[in-house]
Design brief:
The chain is mainly alpha-helical. The chain is built from seven helices and four strands; from the N terminus they run H-H-H-H-H-H-E-E-E-E-H. It binds iron/sulfur cluster and zinc ion. Pfam families: Whib.
Length: 139
Amino acid sequence: MTYIPAAVLAELGASVTAEWTRRAACGGRARVMDPPMRKLDAASRNRAIAVCLGCAVLDDCRTWVMTLPTKADPGGICAALTESQRAQRRKHAKTCTGCRLVLPGTEFHGNPREPDGLTPYCKACSQQIRKAARDQSTR
Ligand code: SF4
Ligand SMILES: [Zn+2]
């Protein structure tokens, strides 16, 4: 898949806010992030990853790209990860029903009643829910 500069992705993905994509270090650097030869050799991969590691919006970008299904992945280096690293992470990840972040399974409590053995809400969201319930009961 051809690499689409993050600034353009703002128009494509509903979850992408234009605000952070305007600060993307890869804007206008499509050839660095996804070289046309398709085969990323180690040197070009490291060059692209270095762009991401110096990017002010790496966290926003990673949150966004890891929420995408694999078939919608932009390709190339994105969020300091290769396409296959992202696919691998998605396999071991789960979307929280509350915050909608894609997180590793370790970020969820176990629940044997759920089909995947994990609670639908991540640990942070579960904590917030419990706190809200406590606050409500003490009113
Ligand atoms: S982290 Fe990398 S791919 Fe994401 S916006 Fe920044 S430079 Fe672009
Ligand atoms: Zn959550």
